[in-house]
## 1
Amino acid sequence: MKTANNVIRILAFQEIYMRILYSFLTRIAYVHMWVAQFFSKKMRQFIQGRIYTFETIEKHIDPKDKTIWFHCASLGEFEQGVPIMEAVRKEFADHKIVVSFFSPSGFEVKKNTPLADVVVYLPMDTRQNAARFVKTIHPSLVIFVKYEFWPNYLWALSKKKAPTILVSGLFRRDQAFFKWYGGFMRRALHRFEHIFVQDRVSKELLKQLQYTQVTISGDTRFDRVSHQIEQDNALDFMEQFKGNSLCVVFGSTWPEDEAVLLGAINRSESTVKYVIAPHKIEVSKIDAFRKKITKPSVLYSEKKGKDLSEYQVLIVDTVGLLTKIYSYGDIAFVGGAMGNTGLHNILEPATFGIPIIIGKNYSTFPEAQRLEQLAGLFSIHSSETYIKIEQKLVADQSFRDKTGMICGHFVNQNTGATAKVMEYLKDLKAAKRIK
C-alpha cells in the first residue's frame, strides 16, 4: 500500500511539473507569435482577434444561459462539425451554441455563421485562460473536432464535470500520445469522456493507451458533403462559362499545385475549360500566376459585363463558391498535396461523382488512400503525370464516368457518423448528464 501511495504521489508531482512546464512554454510561444504579428497579416489576426474573446462571450452569454461548446482548429474541422452542430441545434434548442477557432482561416470565414450564437478565437492554453473561459461559457456539453487536444482546457473541463467528447478523431502512431515522452498528453487525452474515431486503426491505438471509451463512427465529413448534392448548386456565371464544354476544376490550390498544373492548361485543347480556385486569395500571387497562362483567362471579380463563354480559364478570386463550382466539374484536382500544407477536402467533389486527382503527399489522409485503392482517385507527382491522367480522363468518357461513379458511391457508403454521435448525446440527455 505504501509503495502504491508513493507511485501515486510521484505521478501527481509529474503531472503538476508538466503542467507548469507546458504553460510556461505556451507563454513563450505566445511571445514569439506576438512579435510575428508585425510581419504577418495572419499572425496579426491570430493575436488581435483573441483580445476580444472574453468581451464577446460576456456580451452574448448570460450566466443563466445553457450552452454547448464546439471547438474547431480551423475551417476544415468546422465543416467536419457542421452536421453535428445542425443536429445539436435541433435536439438542444434551448441551448446557445459557442464555436471557438484556433486559426484565423476558420474564424474569419465563419465568424458570422448562423449555426452558432457566439463565435470566438480560443485563448491560448494557459491555466488562467482555460479556467476563465470554461467559467464564462459554463458549457453543459463540449465537443472537440478531430485534432484538438488542449491539456489545460481539458483539465478545467474535467473539474467542472462537463461531458467532453471528441468527434471524427484520427490517430496515428507518430503522434505525441504514442511516444515515450507523451505521458502528459496521454493523461490529457484520458479527460475526454468519449472519443468517436474515424477508423479501426485509431481505436486500436487508443486501446494501447488503455483508453476504451471509443466508438468507430466514421467521418462526419461524409454526412456533410452528402447533403450538398441535395442543395441548390446553380451558379449563373458557371452556366455561362462552361456551356457544353468539359470542365476541370482546380480546387483549393497552392503555388506548388499551380506550378504543376500550368503546363497542362497551356497545352490543353480549346474544348476543355478550367476553373482555378486558389486556397488563399492573394492578389499579387494570382496576378503573377495569371500572367503565365497563355489561354484566355478571366477573374471572377471582373466578370461583370463580360461574356464568360469566350474564356477558357476562370480564376475564382473569392471564397465560399468552391463546393457549388465542383457540381459543374467533370474532373477535379484537389490542392494541398503537391506541397506540405495538407490535402484539402476530396469529399466535396467526390459527392458529385467526378474523378479526382491530387498531389503526392497524402499519407496522413485515409480517405484519399482508400479512394485511390478503389480507383476513384489518382495521385500525381509532376506536370507530366498530371497531363497524362487528365488526357485519359478527357478522351475516354466511359473511363471518366466509371471513375466518377466510384467516388459518388464511396461517399454514399460512408455516411452515418452524425447519427452515431447523436445517439450517444441523446443517451446523455436522457440520463440528465446534459442540463
Note: The chain has a mean pLDDT of 91.
## 2
Amino acid sequence: MFESFLFIISYFCGSIPFGLLLTQFSGIGDVRTIGSGNLGASNVLRTGNKALALATFIGDSLKGALPIWIMNKYDIEVLVIAASGAFLGHLFPIWLKFRGGKGVSTYAGLLFAFSIPAFFGFAAIWIFCAAMWRYSSLAALVATFISPLIVYFFIGSASVSLFSGMSLLTWLKHRKNIKRLLIGSERKIGDIQIL
C-alpha cells in the first residue's frame, strides 16, 4: 500500500508540465505549437527566452529530484519506486492525455538526487556533445546511453536497471528526433522559432 501511494504521489509530482505552464503564464502561448512541440527546456529555448528555458529545466529537474530527497532515508527499492513514478509522470502526464516531455531534464534531476558525481558525469557528456554537434537531442541520446555505466560506478548496480529503463524510454520518446538526425533536418541549439 505504501509503495503504491508513493508511486502515485511521485507520478503526480512528475506530471507537472513546467514548460507549458511557464510559457503560457509568460504570454508566449502554448509551447506545444512551437518548434518540435515538445514541453522541455530545449523547445522553450526556441522561443528565444533563455530565462524561461532555464526555469523549465530547473522545474523539470526538481520534480524528479524532490521525491528522492524526501524519501532518502529509505532503501534503494523505495527510491526506485519514487523515481519511476516521477519519470513516468513527466513522460505520460494524465493532464495532457499522457503526452509529456522526453525526460532529459527529469532524468538529470534524478541523477542529481541519487549522486551528484553521476549528475556531473551526465552533464559533462551532454555539454561535450552539444558543443561538438549543436544538437540537443543527440547530446541527450549519447548522455542517456552512457549514463547506466556512470550509474554503476557512482551509485551501484541496484540502480542500473532503473536508469537503463529510463534511458530506453528517453530514446523511444526521441524517435522522431532520431529520424530527423538521420535525414539532416533536426533543429540545432540556438534555432529560434519565428512567432
Note: The two ends are 48 Å apart (CA to CA).
## 3
Amino acid sequence: MPVVNPRVDLRAPVPPWDRLGAVHLVAIGGAGMSAVARLLLGRGVTVSGSDAADSPTLAGLREAGATVHVGHDAAHLAGVDTVVVSSAIREDNPELAAARAGGLRVLHRSQALASLMAGSRGVAVAGANGKTTTTSMLTVALVHAGADPSYAGGGEIPQLGSNAAVGAGEAFVVEADESDGTFLVYRPEVGVVTTVQPDHLDFYGTPEAVDAAYVEFAATVREGGVLVACLDDPGARRLAEGERAAGRQVVTYGADPVADLRLIHTTPEGLGTRSPFTWRGSEHTLVLQVPGDHNVRNAAAAFLAATVGLGQDPDAVLAGLAAFTGVRRRFEVRGSVDGVTVVDDYAHNPAKVAAVVSTARGVVERAGHGRVLVVFQPHLYSRTRDFAEGFAAALAPAHHVVLLDVYGAREAPMPGVSSALVGDPLRDLPGERLVEVGLTAPVAVATLAEAARPGDLVLTVGAGDVTALGAPLLDALRDRHGRESG
C-alpha cells in the first residue's frame, strides 16, 4: 500500500518558490519551519509568521526581514498568498482554518522545501538514525570543497551559524523527515538512506509499512540519480539490494566486505576517530573530530553523496569532513566543571540512545576512569510503549540512569505508560547500575550533580525539554565544587 498522509498530497507537484507570492509560516519558530523561513528570505520572498511565544529564533527572523507575530490570529494572513504548516499544526488553528476557508494555497513544510529545491541538484538524506548529522556533514564538506550549497537540516551547524542557508551552487541538501511520510515529496537527484528501522509506528502502524515507505522514497530519486545506502543496517541493506535488482544505481557503504565503500576499522583519537577505507580500488582515510562508529558511517554516506552523487573532488570532501565539528544536540559538549563533562543529545529512539550511551562508555573506558551518568526523557507515549525494552537495553551501558516522566509532545497520556516501563526492565538487565524513575527535572539535576565525580560524563538525552537541564547541571556542579573547595 502506498504511503498516505490525510493532510498532504505526497505526490502532487508543487510550484517553484518564485510563484509562491507572500508566504506565512504557522509556528515559524520551530527548527524545521525557521529553516524554511530563512531559505525563503534568502530568495527574496516576502515572509511573515507566527508562534505561540517569543524566542531568540523569532528575534533572529525579524532581524533577517520577516514579519513575525506572537500568537495565532487570522488577521495575520492579510496580503498572504501561501501558508506553510507542519504536521504539528492542528486543523483548528485559527490561521490554518482561515487559510483553508479563504482558498489560500496551503503547503506542508516539506512541500515548501521541495519548492525551494526546484532547479537544484537535490540531495535528500533520510533514515531512522543519523540523518541530521549526515546532512550537516555533507553540507560542511560541500562548503569546504567550494560547492556553496543551499541546505536545510534539523539541527544548527555551529561552524556555519545556522540550520539553513541559500548558496550560490547547484547543490541543495535537505534532511528528509520520514515520520509522517513527507520525505516522498522531494524528488532528489541523490537519495541517502542511513538506516531503515521501525519508528513512528503511530503513523505507519507496522514495521512492514515503514519498510515499504523507504522503497517509495527510493523510487522518488530522479532517473539517472543515485541511492546511497548503508549495508551495515539490515533494513537499508534490504532496500539497497531491492533497488539494485530493479536496475537503479545504488552505492553502498559499511564494514561489510561487499560494500562499495568498505570501512576497514576505526581507531579513536581523543573525541574523534581515524578510519581507513577502501573505495574504487584504493585506500583512503576518514578523519573526524566527532566520536562514535555511527558517525563514521554517517561520514561515509556524506562522502559518497558528495563524490558519486555530486561529482565533488574526494580529497576536498575528506578535508571538509575532517573539519566538521558537530551539530547542536548531537553529542554536544555543553561544558565541563571539576573534571565532569556535560553532553547533550537529541536521541529519542532506541538505536540513537544506544549510539550515544555506548559512545560515552567508550570515551570513559579509553580514559581509564570515569562513569556515564544519564538523564533520559522518553519522547511520546506510543514510542515509550512500543520500544520500552529497547530503550532499557540502550541505556544499560550507563552506570547511573535517571528517567524523567514521558514528554508527550503531540500525544495525550496513555493509561499505564510511564518511564517505569523503561526503568523496570533496565533494573533487571545484567550489570551494576543505579536506576531512578520519575524524578522531576530539578531533583534530577541535584541528584546527578551530587553523584558526578571527576572523569564522569553526564548525558542529557531526549527530544523534549530535557535539553534545558545542561545549564542548571553545570551551575549545580560549580556550586558543589565551590562548597567542596571552600
Note: The longest strand covers residues 150-157.
